[in-house]
Specification:
Helix content: over 70%
Number of strands: 0
Structural class: mainly alpha
Largest sheet: none
Mean pLDDT: 86
Distance between the termini: 45 Å
Shape: globular
Order of helices and strands: HHHHHHHHHHHHHHHHHH
Number of helices: 18
Length: about 375
């Protein structure tokens, strides 16, 4: 099965970790608006929700974030904290959702490690304090997969609603997030197909019922993109011209170097060795889960190659939480394997080493915010 049976979920651990993370974020939330978030603020502060939904001006428009942020500022007034509040809340919720998924897929230890890793990552803290939509990308990608687990479990109606809402909201946040959705649908289909023997003669009926929310989401998303198609094309050309004008090292061309930069960036602050526990976690999965995660993480790069347009590393932040989950699984199962064969003193040394290896880069990275 994709998830393990759980009678009870524990919320005390993510609640404590979320409180700690919120305290880490407070100084950055009050900092003056700067850089790209300042551009986003200045370009769209006067835009109405209708204008934001049906007019796309370019990559600096993170539609869902701006709608939420502008609405809050009209109620509570213009302030840095209010401007960034939607992404701050999204980053808090992400800790709860990633803990829930870690517990659903595996166990509490993996869930706790995943929560600690995401708090210690560069991206989660940075985008929780930055007035753009990337923290929303993390949360909505996680809730899409949460919807899939509910859909495949005994809560199909709730799962369908969560999936459709999260998937469409993900595309509203940033159009390039649409690369994530085909992977979700294909991964779900493969999971259902592998369970074909256990379902018997009712399989085809169940398959159609489970895939119906994806079909509805596809129609909704394609219909929306069709209404803003001209703006999307203009936005891509504007971004290309911008990069050419400033002679930036960034490019939209699909190259191995660009893919390497994305892979390296997603591993911040730990570096490329972060992928060692990711790969080990992937290897220890059962066949159904391995297929699910490989398709989920493999489909977006494939679609990017087919499209011929590769965005900056931050564009693919929707993949980041699932790398965290796999790394947490790799750490939990790797330490369990070593504990089984080694002495008590070795266990203490191993735990201390892991804490230092993951903690020191995180502390040094987070210290830069103060």
């Amino acid at each position: 099965m994709l998830t393990s049976d759980k009678k009870e979920y524990y919320w005390k651990t993510p609640a404590v970790l979320s409180l700690f993370f919120a305290l880490l974020c407070l100084p950055g939330l009050t900092a003056p608006i700067y850089g790209d978030e300042a551009v986003t603020y200045l370009e769209h502060i006067v835009s109405s929700p209708f204008q934001l939904l049906f007019n796309y001006s370019g990559p600096n428009q993170h539609t869902l974030f701006t709608i939420l942020s502008n609405s809050l500022m009209r109620i509570f007034g213009e302030h840095e904290i209010i401007f960034r509040f939607p992404v701050f809340v999204a980053s808090i919720f992400s800790i709860f959702v990633i803990y829930h998924l870690g517990q659903s897929f595996w166990n509490k230890k993996v869930a706790t490690i995943a929560s600690l890793l995401i708090i210690g990552s560069y991206h989660h803290l940075n985008w929780a304090q930055n007035g753009r939509g990337y923290a929303l990308n993390e949360l909505l990608a996680l809730t899409c997969v949460l919807g899939i687990t509910l859909l495949l479990d005994k809560k199909p109606n709730k799962g369908a609603l969560v999936l459709i809402f999260s998937g469409f909201a993900l595309c509203l946040t940033l159009p390039s997030n649409a690369y994530f959705l085909p992977g979700c649908s294909i991964a779900t289909f493969v999971v259902m197909w592998r369970l074909k023997k256990t379902e018997g003669s009712v399989f085809w009926f169940l398959l159609g019922k489970k895939l119906l929310p994806f079909i509805f989401l596809m129609i909704l998303t394609v219909g929306y993109f069709f209404t803003i198609y001209d703006d999307l094309v203009r936005g891509i050309e504007t971004y290309k011209n911008f990069l050419n004008g400033i002679k930036s090292a960034e490019t939209t061309e699909v190259t191995l170097l660009h893919f390497y930069q994305i892979i390296r960036d997603l591993a911040r602050p730990w570096g490329l060795w972060f992928y060692i526990p990711v790969l080990y976690g992937l290897l220890t999965l059962n066949r159904i889960q391995r297929s699910f995660f490989l398709i989920l993480l493999g489909t977006p790069p494939l679609l990017v190659v087919l499209s011929g347009i590769l965005g900056p590393p931050r564009t693919y932040i929707f993949m980041f939480p699932f790398l965290i989950l796999l790394a947490a699984l790799g750490i939990e199962r790797g330490t369990r394997f070593l504990f089984h064969y080694k002495s008590h003193y070795f266990r203490k040394i191993l735990i201390a080493t892991l804490c230092l290896v993951f903690l020191i880069p995180s502390v040094l990275n987070h210290f830069q915010n103060y």
